[in-house]
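Note to self: user wants both folds in one dump. Writing first protein now.
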Amino acid sequence: MTEQTLEKTQFKWAIVGGGQMARALVGGMIKAGVVSASNVILVVPSESTRRWWDENQPGVQHADLEEAVQQADIVMLAVKPWVIPVVMNQAGPFWSGKLVVSIAAGVPLSKLCDLAGHGRVVRVMPNTPCLVGSGASAFCGGDEATDEDRTLVASALEAVGIAAEIDEVQMDAVTGLSGSGPAYIYILIEALADGGVAAGLPRDLAMKLATQTVIGAGEMVQKSGMHPGQLKDAVASPGGTTIAALQTLEQNGVRAAMIAAVKASAARSKELA
């Protein structure tokens, strides 16, 4: 599917579930013009969630599950993993001909395809920075997902960040790294700001500097093409302040803690399957 076709698409998207990840991904897609709010049909259980969508994404429609699936061209499943079988069984007769996109962590393609009754399924692991156009997503397709389907999903994800097509066996690792990763970085930003306050900076300035430092460091890695270790060494002059700080980080196991966090999240993703 071409970019021009995507810009003019009238595909209807049914979004089952309206929590944080759906808000981030769909909100980013609407902002980028991949889909118009009027072509989004929401299936959300609570009044407060419906109210959030109406206030923040005016124009979206609401429907019950069966009606939404019947009307949609693409159905995005944005519910907890253990809710997937309930939802898909409830709308069982209506999955035929639909492109099914699941963002539920840990639910394998085999289960999704079995519940849908066909293999036109794409499994996605996005992350919440999709809302500000800086998402990092990965996806894999079922055996009946067409090149057009994969292009559509990739284009939607790329409108809100970067996207990579992967083998399903890698999906748990993606969940541990980029899916859960923003939370790790938020902790680091908060900790950096706390360190700045402890060293004598006012809170607002410490937070501003910590946030921009993380953004700038990420862009240096992305745009320079250099290995993070090279960039680190370029900052750490002999006997200077940075090498003293790096020694403290190593002594406190920061590197090992980050590796362990990714592995723990990936392992939990496997358990959810």
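First done. Writing the second protein, which came from a different request thread.
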Amino acid sequence: MGTVQYDFADETAVVTGGSSGIGRAIALEFADASATVINADIDPEPKDRDAEKPTHERIEADGGTAEFVETDVSDPEDIRVAVEAAREYGGVDVMVNNAGLYIGGPMREVTEDEFDRIHAVNAKGVFFGTQIAANDMIDRGVAGSIVNTASISSNVAQFGQVQYDSTKGAIRMITRGSALELAEHDIRVNAVAPGQIATEFLEGWTEEAQEGAEEGEFLKPVPLGRAGFPTDVAPAAVFLASDAAGYVTGELLHVDGGWQII
């Protein structure tokens, strides 16, 4: 099969939640494409079991340019600081609103605090990440791209996940509505929609579960016959941000091994 190379030289990508999992893979993928990367996360230390260095240090060790900015995406002011940090490198060209939180449990048992917390990170964080990045791009008079991390849960209900599914459904409509409003400013807004990806994202995810995922032990069969990993999602995010997707906006690109079709 063929290979694809993207060139983001002289461009800056801000990736929220870039320390671990899908966000780390996306940050590293942009760095491989020569972008300057701002990792906007609460903690620079990765949770991935095979990660030896924080994302920004790994990128710098590989000869790239990167910076960590402590960011709680539930606070729009923190997002604004991260976007402003990109000005040192010319300003944000690509905004990846990836930071997310998972809280599971039966709908009847979800507390108000749990509901508020997951919506503050997942939905509010993406909304204001999109808004703040778009306003910065417009103020600078540049075209740009915004990529959000949605989910198969943006379209499909899953048992014990109403509170989580509702945030991912919100991200779907934030993506579509923002794409409609920002098109006149040459800003494209899209989302990747990962399926069941083996990461440290889920609380209680153990090494045994990771090994089980690698052996294909999911509750629902995946047509492609294997687990998904962050490195499956990252190229899709970079594609959506690239000129190769220059006529694509308002879309959710599913990266789920075909999970949603059965």
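Dump finished. Worth passing along: Confidence is low (pLDDT under 50) at residues 201-206.
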